[in-house]
């Protein structure tokens, strides 16, 4: 089902190291521990052929059967939890507690997507008479093979398995995953477990495969067999995929992220110490490497929130970023933010360590690995204008605080921000006179508003929306988390005057898939 890729050990810094391989580094030390060879063009082509052959078989398989496949994957992840967390720790430096939690959520969400598939409403099945003896039937069909580009910051949640993979399989599509170079050895092992679980559960050959290497990823984007692409990562990477796939009209569901705002109303500012502690905890979670990280907090002047943030930061530890490149980008980003703040006349930067913005020269074999310190900057409303460096995302544990004198002016400043995935609003309660206006303004430029909660928590549920207007994502109508995630990988079709042989099982009179259907305009649920 997926080819097993053996790892090869090469010494760190060895000039003879194979350039056609992804090296594996430990972010905590910068030391290299093996590598994974890139997938050859011939091998990618063979994987694509198998996926294409499997597509019609998977599409014709009942959603309940696919639910069994996903449950088998989740069971395998749980069985091998300790091994997988150890591997992930060696390649991400994210810590055992975080990784155990992420793996548990990945297994739970995988089961959830199977349940969404089995429930069947994503199929949108319906049939009706349209006059005389004519009928019209409509339902959603799977697109076909899907390419998934795994993320660096969620090795389980958005990697070789996770939301994109599980929702595509649940929707009835074969999946080919491109491993992220930040954790190649983990990717190989996860792919082995997923492939074995699918095979044991009876999924057809070609249902799932892994490829490694930049060129292998480009080959997937260009391949005629690929019908959709899911991506989680940087704006540069996501837009490059969008532009390349546009030549073939292939949809790219890229979740890229921008600066997520937090707005503290005047009434809510009475809890300034608690808000500051929550803000620092949220933007430093996972070393600030969440797409839902709060990046800019608006607070009433005089509430003392920035001073409280500075006090919290003095207690915040340094933490390794995922890769040497991300660490260099973070340090460069700090320099840019500091220069932008200084140019605007603000000297309010503070950090857990005075020299946290030192030269960005860390190499993979640095004794300190890719560790960085968290930092916050104080900015003014008038500095938040289009084109300002202050409005560009800096990936890592840094955030801005903007103190406002006038709530209406602060709301106007919000409209100058790039659209984002999520925003938080902290209010003084249901009678807070400012909260409704703030929420109303934010809904026009984010995918989700969290009231009196930090944005970093994302629930895998029926009502979750994890997306947002461009440039937060490439498709604002889509979500990469929650029941709606399956909708990305199907499209509607209709047949007029269909005989039973022309219809899917879900539209047969006896409804063998036991799914909700709309018959002559009336929603009909399967008998319990």
From TrEMBL:
Entry superkingdom: Bacteria
Short name of one Pfam family for this protein?
Aldedh
Where is there biased composition of kind Low complexity?
Answer: 11-27
Annotated ranges, domain Aldehyde dehydrogenase: 23-468
Alphabetical list of Gene3D superfamilies matching this protein: Aldehyde Dehydrogenase, Chain A, domain 1, Aldehyde Dehydrogenase, Chain A, domain 2
| InterPro entries reported in the protein's UniProt record | Ald_DH/histidinol_DH, Ald_DH_C, Ald_DH_N, Aldehyde_DH_dom, Aldehyde_DH_Superfamily
The record's keywords, sorted A to Z, are: Oxidoreductase
The ranges of region (Disordered) come to 1-38
Ranges of biased composition (kind: Polar residues): 1-10
- GO-annotated molecular function: oxidoreductase activity, acting on the aldehyde or oxo group of donors, NAD or NADP as acceptor
Q: What is this protein called?
A: Aldehyde dehydrogenase family protein
